[in-house]
Amino acid sequence: MAVLMDGRIMAAQLMEGLKERVNVLKEKGVGVGLAVILVGEDPASQVYVRNKGKACEELGIHSETIRLPEETSQQALEALIDQLNQDDRIDGILVQLPLPRHLNEAQALRKIIPEKDVDGFHIENAGKLFTGQQGVVACTPKGIMHMLKEAKVPLSGRHAVVIGRSNIVGKPIAMLLLDENCTVTICHSRTQDLPGHTRQADILVAAVGRAGFVTADMVKPGAAVVDVGINRVNGKVVGDVDFEAVEKVAGYISPVPGGVGKMTIGMLMENTIEAAERKAK
Ligand code: NAD
């Protein structure tokens, strides 16, 4: 039976440490602030934004959620980002994705000054990650690395297989695993013989967005399986991994809910606090 990489426990420990850092800043008279911009009424986004607000509250971080109507123009969105860029109370700006179709996501993200880009999606931060320079690292991949290290999963020289090649999960987690000296394979929707690849993985990261996608026969015995997927099936949230079957084969496994999602929020808090710490310097 696999060791459970429990995001709830790991995130709770992380939050304790972060609370301390917020207090140290407060003693120096430095506040920490996060602004979240939510455009439209996407139900999943509403839940994510609420959870981010709750985490800020727990840590004593000032948080503002700015809700804009679905029909908001690109110009109005960028004007708001500009205003938040200049607001000293705000250390982190997050534009909740996905944006409505008529808005240009990449252009909006580029408007955020890289220092306040706590999601790590700005082209400058993504570029730094890909060239081995220090920048803001995207929350979900950063959270996955934290989880693997907390669970003491051996990384150096091991084969990591990532399923998914998105800019927010697949590509950045591949870079972070490479930085830890893994041999990395990135698989995607056009990959031939996917199980042939996944069965070679010592570390398998599933970021596809399809319930039950990773089955037990795709997993090498003893592998560390990280489930990034968030899928809603009959009102229940499930990951990409067939948890019940895979936990019998894997050496380590992360659950959904209570896995990577928890780490993502923790890392968003850490990125925001780090931005405030930079400001304090
Ligand atoms: P995405 O849709 O941008 O990317 C999905 C990837 O899966 C693509 O790169 C595609 O090539 C690959 N894929 C699709 N079908 C495939 C197939 N048959 N075989 C192999 N690969 C295939 O999604 P994303 O933004 O990377 O998110 C992936 C999942 O992770 C979603 O369920 C999302 O909700 C979830 N997610 C969770 C968190 C979290 O904090 N837990 C954060 C971000 C995303």
In short:
The chain is of the alpha/beta class.
Keywords:
281 residues, alpha/beta, Rossmann fold, 2 domains, 6-stranded parallel β-sheet, 10 helices, 42% helix, binds nicotinamide-adenine-dinucleotide
Describe this structure in words.
The protein has 281 residues and is of the alpha/beta class. The chain folds into two domains: 29-123, Leucine Dehydrogenase, chain A, domain 1 (Rossmann fold), CATH 3.40.50; 139-260, NAD(P)-binding Rossmann-like Domain (Rossmann fold), CATH 3.40.50. Helix content is 42%, strand content 16%. It has helices at 7-27, 43-59, 74-85, 105-111, 123-130, 139-150, 170-179, 194-198, 243-246, 260-280; strands spanning 3-4, 33-39, 62-68, 92-95, 159-163, 183-187, 203-206, 224-227, 231-233, 236-238, 252-253. A six-stranded parallel β-sheet has the order 1-11-8-7-5-6. A three-stranded parallel β-sheet has the order 3-2-4, sandwiched between helices. A two-stranded antiparallel ribbon has the order 9-10. Helix 1 runs parallel beside helix 10 (260-280) and helix 6 packs across helix 10 (260-280). The chain binds nicotinamide-adenine-dinucleotide. The site of nicotinamide-adenine-dinucleotide has 23 residues, from helix 10.
